[in-house]
């Protein structure tokens, strides 16, 4: 994934004898070393015929944050004032980070009396420039902001969903939950939320006593609404308890050709639902439903018919074309079958539904035996499986339901 683009706002005369040029060169090098892309607008970077302000606007539009080198020249620069105004506007809209690098020749009083002071730069992170020989001090001070920019760039929808829910949690609760999970504490609240979301979603097997995930959830809940609380519980527990390798194996079934069959040793179809949610890698799981087998004649025909009825009634899927459309838009529909996948059963289902569905057979591990060429998942030890489902039930019952439920 490309690193964040950082707009470098500054003003330096060509023959300036002060710290302008050393600071600029050092910051460009530091940003490159940190995996960032400095965005520098100067006469050398302009495309022939390009307007200066248009170039600045384009550069700011592509940036994920701004580093302003506060020099005596920058205090008097209209271009720097315009750049900071753009940054402030974006900050109010989407939390655009602005870092001020203070050069030694500029006092805070001079900054506040300048054209930049009218935009309240004192509310931004201020870093002292110690000179090019101590660049590590600057790196240490701005690294949290660069980490935040990288976190914001992450495309993981589940991670960002948790960050969204954690916005309403106070700083003290965030810190206590982070300490419980072993997450590095951070005074920068937006970054702390990202770190905590990563901690909640990190695979961590349950502990018989003093489980850190449950303790962290107790610190963070309840949220303002039961839906948000319920989603925080389900996403956290599912990602923490279902092994990431198992989720990857389930996704691999989709590309393995026909038949698309996975077998999960488990005691409950609730466990199957959590495996499906983990494999989907989305805030919402792939659509799924359970079709229990009934004893008697015509079992295969009855099962195929019931699957067709469910697809039509619940998902408006009535033929192979709409089934393909659904998978393209939302992922496969997963049919949970609490029964061993015998050869005749798999053959009948594959003939009726050669694409668009994933069949997840849920079988007691002690009764599983051989499963043929199908993808067999490892499953969880019985006590860990029960802990996962019990944790979701208990926390949802306490925090994720309304009084009318």
TrEMBL record:
Entry protein name: TIR domain-containing protein
InterPro entries: TIR_dom, Toll_tir_struct_dom_sf
Organism: Streptomyces griseorubiginosus
Lineage top rank: taxon: Bacteria
The TIR domain, residue ranges: 2-146
Gene3D superfamilies, per the entry: Toll/interleukin-1 receptor homology (TIR) domain
Pfam families: TIR_2 (PF13676)
A single BP term in Gene Ontology: signal transduction
